[in-house]
Design goal:
Shape: extended
Distance between the termini: 100 Å
Strand content: 5-15%
Structural class: alpha+beta
Number of strands: 28
Number of helices: 46
Strand order of the largest sheet: 6-7-21-8-17-11-12
Length: about 1550
């Protein structure tokens, strides 16, 4: 990274921080070489100007997806960009073609589902958001196109996600290659299932990681010539052999040793194992267990993994027997023997471990002892056996242990490869390398030296690749790059591996000398490399040395280098284990050639490591490399934590910063002409105003700024390090001057505004004071006028008061008189109105009584008649049910319901009858009582009259002197008693009338209830009828299905080898239709004597064979003519397809639907299939879509399976018992009855006029095949339209930048052309839609199918545009939203022009892209709440989709921001809840390519087809055999 330039006061910069690595701030003071910075965390930092780096204040808040797009490509810029993207769950970022993957430590399933794989399949690199799938796709496409093997190098420390990344790579490659493995397991699954086994034997705990891989793994996916996966293999490299014998605290040995020590008791007892602390190879470190790991469970899990991989129980026992033998071997100790330089077994404990080792390896204990302490030297004269001293014996022991473990690990790898399956004929592979990363601990030993040597090699390979990519970029842009220096680390590699004189060579040399120690080795290094700039000698150490690696300086302790490097290949060991009685052990040590088995050979781990590394590099150099750098964001392994210092260290170790250093050596800043002009156009407005080309304009701006060393490519501007900062400084100066001008104008405007306000206030004050003076003068004048007015009014008041008094008196007198007249008039009118009301009420009462009596009689009559009709219908239904014998449980329930309702009706009628009878009896009683009372009253009146008459006569006859007599008193009492009795009778009569009225009301209520019950009964009867009809339809469908299945089964049996041939069928009677014998009409037939004669002689073969043969030939000729006719485009007649009408009429007339075997259906299907072979001819496809849909509609209303008619009484055909009836039945079943027609005189009419035909198997099969062809033709038309608009959709999602650039430049004459160019792609889509609509209209395709086509097409447009919007950040901009919105308006206008008949609900299918675009173009997004966004703006979009759009949005037009951080946080919380609730978190849409309709949908949606008036084509109109096609008159 180059030291920054143009740092001025006010610049935003990055400064180093001890904890945060880098922190941003603003420069407020510069003194000489020191800068003073106010940081954003509130601190003030003083540092050297060379240690600060400029910050891009205009960088997008969500970061950039490719860090080569950064304005400042330096360490803090990279770190800030990664942090910004990680906060938005954007875990992938490009650096050129290098992918950086940050482990999210949480599930992100939407990033890896099938939808996402479909999006990246075949996409250009960099077109979509960064993803591991993009790297895999590039590797696969390069392999397919160039025929060269590719490799993907996945690096990073443990926990960074290398294994998960490797898994995703293999998933995607398996998705592209598409080969499944053994037993349904994919290659990816098989490779991953081997991981637990390899981890158990190849992983160990290190200082920084509990499960660190101590070997490199290269997974090869092998492909055949067609790009399909044909096999796979796992290659391992650089196993850390020295760890078997030497470990340092607090590390552990390989996991398998601890797992075996924690095995179940019976296993430990079998292998004589105990606590790990009792074994020398394990107790060199104080760490025996891992936190949170149960070694017993891990042991069982490893055994299960071995089962899955295919390792048998015997092999597993042998494997762990070898592991236990290595542990016991390490406990064998040696002591000095009696002879000089000799050794013996130290004690009984060592002897026990020796015997146990021999027992486990199934070899002789004495031979094992001799192999450890003796050496055989073969000379030309003799064979010499010498003994080893204890130190050499320990080395021999450790060499045996390392060799056995290494062979065991190699065997496991070979076993895994054999279970996966390899392809020896594969020419191309894609390899995925998963290898340990750079290591730098507090104490570093030989293991770290080897690992860092490996990473130096890989880094050189990486640097060469990065420089190569830089060269390709420069070459592509045609710029001069020859003077750019390549940053190489070859000097470090020479320091380590050079022969002679490298560290490894010196180490091997020291190991071969017995007297060498680690101190002499260190001194040798100091002397040899004292002048090497990469080698540093620590000041306070005599045995340490420091190497300056690409990732930083690492200090190594040389104390154990010699011991860990020794790796003797001892011939005695080979002979001993080859002779083992255990087949597994002897298999690990196959016999060596004669010359190699005679003596021991020195071999070092360093040299072996170097050879294996060379082999790995040769493999990588033979492939095209791709790089993925995995990063662990924190050591707590928790999500949403980004530790800057930790990540910076990983970026250094991963070589990412080294790649940046390589880029900075050339042209680190690259900008397209559009971006450069958009950002720095303000530096030269005259250039923008001029009519210059983009390239020329950029060059003029750079020349005007006086920059040197830049390069202008074909599409980009390449700037040297520091030039971007200088341009930004100039730009900041220009913008600062412009800001000062704006401020000056604003201050002028504010000052003038204040002056105008002050002047206006003074004027208002003066006006107010003048107004006060005028008010005072006015008040004085007003008082004078008021005095005069008061005097005038008082005089007027007195005069008026006297007048009003007199006037009031006159008015009161008049009012009284008028009121009296009005009351009299009102009283008269009131009486008149009351009389009229009484008369009206009486007349209404009479009319109402009469109406009710009529209504009651009518209701009773209707109830009786309906009951009679219902009983008759019920009796008919029961008779029909008994005849069919197919009563169902549902019909029983309905009949029970009807009986229950009938019973209830009878019960109600009985109640009503009883009530009426009781009422009639009560009324009769009341009338009798009333008559009796009336008689009594008349008798009483008569007696009273008589008594009065007698009294009158007595008075007249009495003498003049009248005396009071008691008789008069008696008569008066009698009258009074009679009067009282009369009153009581009147009261009784009144009460009887009231009771009669109550009875009448009760009767009326009962009538109302009866009326309601009658209505309910009618409704119930209607429902019963509907249910019976629906049940009948269901029975018909069920019977049709059963009959179809039965017919198909019968046909299958008939087609079997045991079935009878067609020739064995009995011959049927054939009668030609002639003018003499007439036509069969309405089930009857006119029979002539000639016909009778034919019937009587029908049994004679001689008279039957010849007509039959001629008729078959005639039938075949007719079929040939029909096929020839329909193979041509017959067009349409009155909007109806002629071909479908002709086919249907012919098949129906020939009774082809009712025959067991015929070839006409197959020939029709073949004709249709041959016609639609040209898939691109949409006119032909639309023509046959119209014909097939019409023909299928006719078949749907005509055909029914055999046996279905017997269950429908209404449509059952009665069988004639007469001879002619049997003849007509025979003719009906005859396939050759071409001369008979079931049509009436009017010919074939509407669908309602069609009668159903009992179809046989060929007809049913023909219907199914026709349905399949209809769906196929529909799909072909839909897919053709999709193919036509798919390229346009890729152009429609993003506005062309060239046009936008021309608009930015303000070229007025090009504005109209540019706007037209922006919308041209959308208009092309509309043009395609119009073309297809016109074609389908011209071929009279049913509107139902047209609606379905365009509905699915608009759904496809919605899916493609929406998914592209979510996967490409450059599309989520404000101006792009306006562009897409304008295009959607074109589609909306098309839907309006096409009308709802053909467009249907197509516009509604664009709801996702419409709402997403609406969200992009709304203003003031930060003010929108989450509820407003989800409920009002975008109710259709999911939280995942809204989150994606919100985080990817950027405003390239006005510079506004996306939604607020609170809304983003709320969205993240909801997404976390959804993931916890197992809710699908995929934000992509899926395209539905299914057929969106069924045959029933077609029959329901299409209009009735009247084919009676369809004119037959001229080809067959003249043929006499097709006379039935001609329309007939009445």
């Amino acid at each position: 990274m180059v030291a920054p330039v143009n740092i001025i006061v006010g610049s935003h910069v990055w400064v180093e921080h001890p904890e945060l690595a880098w922190v941003d701030g603003e420069v407020f003071k510069i003194s000489a070489e020191e800068v003073h910075v106010h940081t954003t965390n509130g601190q003030t930092v003083i540092t050297n100007i060379s240690k600060v780096f400029p910050k891009d204040t205009e960088a997008p808040p969500g970061g950039v997806d490719d860090m080569t797009k950064l304005s400042y490509l330096h360490e803090p810029g990279v770190l800030h960009n990664l942090a910004a993207r990680y906060e938005l769950n954007e875990i992938y970022t490009y650096t050129g073609n290098i992918l950086i993957a940050i482990n999210p430590f949480q599930r992100l399933p939407h990033l890896y589902d099938t939808h996402m794989m479909e999006q990246y399949k075949g996409a250009q690199f960099g077109e979509l958001s960064p993803h591991v799938f993009a790297i895999a796709d590039v590797a696969y496409r390069a392999m397919i196109n160039e025929g060269k093997s590719n490799s993907i190098l996945v690096s990073g420390e443990s926990g960074a996600g290398k294994t998960e990344t490797t898994k995703m790579l293999m998933r995607y490659l398996a998705y592209l290659g598409g080969r499944s493995g053994v037993e349904g397991r994919t290659v990816e699954q098989q490779v991953l299932e081997s991981n637990p086994v390899l981890e158990a034997f190849g992983n160990a705990k290190t200082v920084r990681n509990n499960n660190s891989s101590r070997f490199g793994k290269f997974v090869e996916l092998q492909f055949d010539k067609n790009g399909r996966i044909s096999g796979a293999a796992v290659r391992t490299y650089l196993l850390e052999r020295s760890r078997v014998c030497q470990i340092s605290d607090p590390e552990r040995n390989y996991h398998c040793f601890y797992l075996l020590c924690a095995a179940p008791p019976e296993v430990r007892e079998k292998f004589k194992l105990g606590d790990p602390k009792s074994f020398h190879y394990l107790n060199q470190s104080n760490c025996y267990a891992l936190d949170g790991v149960d070694d017993t469970e891990e042991y069982l899990a490893t055994r299960r993994a071995m089962d899955i991989v295919g390792i048998s129980e015997e092999e597993q026992d042998a494997i762990f027997r070898v592991v236990a033998a290595i542990l016991h071997l390490g406990n064998i100790e040696f002591a000095k023997g009696e002879e000089v330089d000799s050794s013996v077994i130290k004690d009984e404990k060592s002897r026990f471990h020796l015997n146990t080792t021999a027992e486990l390896l199934k070899c002789d204990a004495k031979s094992l002892e001799d192999a450890l302490i003796n050496r055989v030297m073969v000379t030309p004269e003799e064979v010499i056996t010498r003994t080893l001293d204890p130190v050499a014996a320990v080395g021999s022991r450790d060499a045996l242990a390392k060799t056995v473990y290494s062979r065991l690990f190699d065997w496991l790898v070979d076993k895994i490869n054999s279970s996966i399956g390899q392809d020896p004929n594969s020419r191309t592979i894609i390899g995925v390398l998963d290898i340990y990363g750079f290591e730098s601990f507090k104490l570093n030993s030989f293991e770290q030296f080897c690992i860092n040597f490996t990473n130096e090699k890989l880094q050189q390979h990486f640097n060469q690749h990065v420089f190569k990519m830089e060269q390709e970029e420069y070459t592509k842009e045609e710029i001069n790059w020859s003077y750019i220096e390549f940053v190489d680390n070859q000097d470090v590699l020479d320091l380590i591996e050079k022969k002679p004189g490298g560290i490894i060579a010196l180490l091997d040399e020291a190991c071969m000398f017995p007297k060498s120690t680690h101190e002499t080795f260190a001194q040798k290094l100091y002397q040899t490399f004292k002048s090497n700039k990469r080698f540093i000698k620590p000041k306070l150490s005599r045995t340490s040395f420091t190497i300056s690696h690409y990732a930083g300086e690492v200090t190594y302790l040389a104390d154990l280098f010699l011991d860990k490097n020794k790796d003797y290949v001892v011939a005695e060991h080979q002979v001993l284990l080859t002779a083992s009685k255990c087949p597994f052990v002897s298999g690990l040590f196959p016999p060596l050639p004669e010359e190699s088995s005679k003596s021991s050979k020195f071999s070092s781990i360093g040299s072996r490591f170097k050879l294996q590394l060379q082999s790995l590099m040769e493999t990588l150099n033979s492939t095209e490399p791709h790089y993925i750098r995995c990063v662990k964001p924190n050591n707590t392994l928790r999500p949403a934590i980004f530790e800057n210092a930790n990540i910076i260290q990983q970026l250094r170790c991963g070589g990412v910063l080294e790649a940046i250093r390589i880029s900075c050596a050339g042209y680190p800043t690259r900008r397209t002409f559009y971006e450069f002009l958009h950002r720095f156009g303000v530096l030269a407005p005259d250039v923008l105003d001029g009519n210059y080309d983009d390239k020329v304009a950029c060059e003029k701006i750079l020349d005007k700024m006086g920059l040197k060393g830049y390069q202008i490519g074909k599409t980009k501007v390449f700037l040297r390090a520091g030039q971007m900062a200088e341009l930004d400084a100039r730009r900041a100066e220009v913008l600062g001057n412009a800001a000062r001008i704006i401020q000056r104008q604003i201050r002028t405007y504010i000052a003038r505004k204040e002056f105008i306000a002050l002047r206006k206030a003074a004027i208002v004050l003066q006006s107010y004071w003048r107004g006060i003076l005028a008010c005072k003068l006015y008040e004085q004048l007003r008082r004078e006028a008021a005095a005069l007015k008061i005097q005038k009014n008082f005089r007027s008041y007195t005069a008026r008061t006297s007048y009003l008094t007199a006037r009031s008196s006159a008015i009161q007198l008049q009012t009284g008189l008028r009121a009296m007249v009005a009351r009299n008039e009102f009283r008269f009118r009131k009486q008149t109105k009351a009389a009229i009301f009484i008369e009206a009420y009486l007349r209404r009462h009479i009319a109402c009584s009469y109406y009710k009596s009529l209504k009651k009689a009518a209701v009773i009559t209707q109830c009786g008649w309906r009951r009679r009709v219902a009983r008759r219908e019920l009796r008919n239904l029961k008779m029909a049910a008994r005849e069919t014998g197919a009563l169902k449980e549902a019909k029983d329930k309905l009949e029970k319901r009807v009986e229950e309702l009938t019973w209830r009706l009878q019960f109600e009628k009985q109640l009503r009858t009883n009530l009426e009878e009781e009422k009639a009896q009560e009324i009769a009683k009341l009338q009798d009582a009333l008559q009796a009372m009336q008689l009594q009253v008349e008798e009483a009146n008569f007696r009273t009259l008589k008594e009065q008459e007698a009294a009158r006569k007595a008075i007249e006859e009495a003498p003049p002197i009248v005396k009071e007599t008691p008789v008069i008193v008696h008569d008066t009492e009698t009258i009074e008693s009679l009067t009282a009795e009369l009153d009581s009778l009147k009261a009784l009569l009144l009460s009887e009338r009231e009771s009669a009225e109550e009875a009448r009301k009760a009767c009326m209520d009962a009538e109302v209830r009866n009326t309601e019950l009658v209505k309910k009964l009618e409704d119930t009867e209607e429902k019963v009828g509907q249910l019976q009809e629906s049940m009948q339809r269901l029975e018909e469908k069920l019977c049709n299905s059963e009959s179809e299945n039965q017919v198909i089964r019968q046909q299958a049996l008939a087609m079997s080898p045991t079935g009878k041939s067609l020739s064995a069928r009995p011959k049927t009677l054939v009668i030609q239709r002639t003018p003499e014998n007439g036509n069969v009409q309405n089930g009857e037939m006119k029979v002539t004597p000639e016909v009778t004669l034919a019937v009587t002689s029908a049994r004679e073969p001689e008279s039957e064979e010849k007509p039959q043969k001629s008729l078959n030939e005639k039938q075949q000729e007719n079929q040939d003519l029909l096929i020839k006719c329909v193979s041509q485009n017959l067009g349409f007649s009155r909007g109806k397809p002629v071909a479908a009408s002709v086919i249907y009429k012919c098949l129906l007339h020939w009774r082809s639907f009712e025959v067991e075997r015929t070839t006409v259906f197959d020939r029709i299907i073949q004709t249709i299939a041959s016609a639609i072979e040209v898939q691109d001819n949409n006119d032909v496809l639309a023509y046959w879509l119209s014909n097939s849909s019409t023909l299928l509609l006719l078949l749907q209303h005509t055909l029914k399976a055999s046996g279905a008619a017997s269950l429908t009484p209404q449509r059952r055909r009665t069988t004639s018992a007469s001879l002619f009836g049997r003849m007509s039945q025979g003719l009906r079943a005859s396939p050759q009855s071409a001369g008979l027609s079931f049509l009436n005189g009017r010919g074939l009419g509407r669908l309602d006029d069609l009668r159903q035909v009992e179809a046989k198997y060929p007809a049913l099969l023909f219907k199914q095949q026709l349905t399949a062809f209809l769906e196929k033709i529909y799909g072909m038309i839909r897919d053709n339209l999709k193919k036509e608009i798919s390229p346009l959709l890729g152009l429609c999602i993003q506005a062309p930048r060239t046009s936008r650039a021309s608009l930015v430049k303000g070229r007025s004459q090009a504005n109209a052309v540019a706007q037209q160019a922006l919308i041209a792609h959308w208009q092309s889509i509309v043009k395609s839609l119009n073309s297809y609509l016109k074609t389908m209209k011209a071929n009279y395709v049913p509107p139902f199918l047209v609606r379905k086509v365009f509905t699915q097409i608009f759904s496809f447009i919605n899916v493609q545009l929406f998914n592209s919007l979510l996967l490409r950040r450059e599309c989520c901009s404000f101006s792009n939203g306006e562009y897409v919105k304008a295009g959607l308006a074109e589609l909306e206008q098309w839907c309006y022009d096409a009308t709802e008949e053909y467009a249907g609900s197509a516009w509604d299918e664009l709801k996702h892209i419409r709402q997403a675009v609406g969200f992009l173009v709304i203003h003031q997004k930060p003010k929108k709440t989450l509820n407003e966004i989800t409920k009002e703006l975008c109710p259709v979009l999911s939280i995942q989709q809204l989150y994606r759009i919100s985080t990817m949005y950027w405003d390239d037009k006005y510079g506004t921001h996306s939604v607020s951080s609170e809304v983003i946080s709320s969205m993240r919380v909801l997404m976390t809840e959804d993931s916890n609730n197992a809710v699908s978190s995929s934000f992509l849409l899926d395209d539905d390519s299914s057929i969106p309709f069924t045959v029933d949908d077609i029959s329901k949606s299409l209009q009735q087809v009247d084919i009676a008036d369809v004119e037959p084509p001229a080809v067959i109109r003249e043929n006499s055999g097709f006379g039935f096609l001609l329309p007939r008159t009445e």
